[in-house]
Every structure is written in structure tokens, then in C-alpha cells.
Amino acid sequence: MSVRVGVVRFPGSNCELDVLEAVRSLGGDAELLWHGDRSVAGVDAVVVPGGFAHGDYLRPGAIARFSPVMDAIHEFAASGGAVVGICNGFQVLTEAGLLPGALQKNRGLKFLCTTTGLRVESTNTVLTSQASLGQVLRVPINHFEGNYTCSPETLAELRADDRVVLRYLANPNGSVDDIAGVCNAGRNVVGLMPHPERATGDLLGSTDGVPLLRSLLKAPQPAG
Questions:
Q1: Is 150 annotated in the active site?
Q2: Is residue 136 part of a domain?
Q3: Catalytic site residue 87?
Q4: Does residue 46 surpass a pLDDT of 90?
Q5: Closest of 85, 58, 50, 52 to residue 70, by C-alpha
Q6: What domain range includes position 24?
Q7: Which of 81, 138, 168, 198 lies 20 to 30 Å (CA to CA) from residue 180?
Q8: What is the tens place of the pLDDT at every residue in 74-108?
Q9: What CATH number does the domain containing 195 carry?
Q10: Exactly one of 16, 54, 87, 150 is catalytic; which is it?
């Protein structure tokens, strides 16, 4: 039976259809979840996609964190369900307290739209189980506020617990410790700024997002 992936749509999301298509191209089922939903029942994994949720008013993710679906995602994650936030979705997950740290404006205050090299730093997460440790992936980025920051104490904890999931080879945005993605303590919630859904076919210039999305499709199912 195919894994069912729910992709959240907020007002201002613009990458949700890309995620649907990428998941389906890899043999998974995918469906949209509305930000006003109070349940994510029936899905096996959740993706919070890129875009500009609620127009990025105040700051990215600051309003989206209060959408009813986020309470359901908190419960889903607490049960062990796989949750992945991509770009704006990563920002939403940090604002919602599902991941540590925050995303601030890029170094140099420039919007970035390019392809960048990533190194897989941990394969013990729902997003990287099908990748190889140290594997280099070329994946697009598309952001203005992708500069990951956290306190020295949080950074030490992330390093000690093997929770830095991906690092940039050539840091494009000023992120502390070259961090491109992190996970929670349970390793079932992952956020990353690059867009693996845009690197799943030769026509898109890269297939390096495939091992990441295949990992999501093989993630353990939530309890209950």
C-alpha cells in the first residue's frame, strides 16, 4: 500500500503542487491539507512546503504557526509521525517550536535562487535514511530568509546529538555552522531550506532530491 503524504496549503504557499507531483512520481500518494484543518488523520507523513505562508507578515512562519492544522501536526509528530518542512515550511516549524533555532535574512541581504551542494551529515532521520553518510547532493535553493541561527548552547546540543542533518558545501546565506537542515530529538521532524522536490527528474536538472523523498516514503508510521 502506498504511503500517503499530506502537504499543507497555507494562503501564500506556492510549492505544494511541486511536492505532490514529486511524491507521486516516486510511487507515493499525496493529498493537500488545508491550513484550517484540525486533523491530519489518514496520512502517513506530513510536508509543510515552501512559499510565503500568510504573506510572511511579521516574519516568515509567525502567523502560520497559529493555523489550526499546526496543533494537529504537533500531535502527529508527538506520536512519531514524519514531518518535513521545506524552505518556508522549515521557518514555520521553527516558529511553531517543532524544531530549534530560527531563520533570519540571508547574509548580504540578497534573495538566492540557485543550485547548491549539500553534504548528508546524518542518515538517522526520516529524510535521510535512504541517503549515504557524506553523500553530496545538488539541490536548488530559493529564499531570502534562509540564514539558520541558534544559541551556542543549542548548536552544541545539535552537534552532540547528531541532529545537523545537512550542511552546505559552500555556505550561501550565512547559516551558522553551514547548517542547511536539522531534526528534532525524536529524529522524525526535519526542516531544510533547499528544495528536494525540485530535484527529482532529469528535466529539472538534478535527481539528487530523490533519496531524500524516498526516505520520507519509507519513514516509520506514527503510533496508533
A1: no
A2: yes
A3: yes
A4: yes
A5: 85
A6: 4-217
A7: 81
A8: 999 999 999 999 999 999 999 999 999 999 999 99
A9: 3.40.50.880
A10: 87
Task: Judge whether 179 lies within some domain.
Answer: yes
Structural domains in the chain (count): 1
| Cell output for 188 | 522524525
Strands 45-48 and 4-9: parallel
- Taking Cα atoms as reference points, which of 75, 64, 4, 78 lies closest to residue 36? 64
Is there a catalytic annotation at residue 195? yes
Q: What is the pLDDT of residues 145-192, one digit of tens each?
A: 999 999 999 999 999 999 999 999 999 999 999 999 999 999 999 999
Active-site hit among 16, 95, 145, 197:
197
- pTM value? 0.96
Domain membership flag for residue 224: no
194 occurs within a structural domain: yes
Q: Cell numbers of 4, please?
A: 500517503
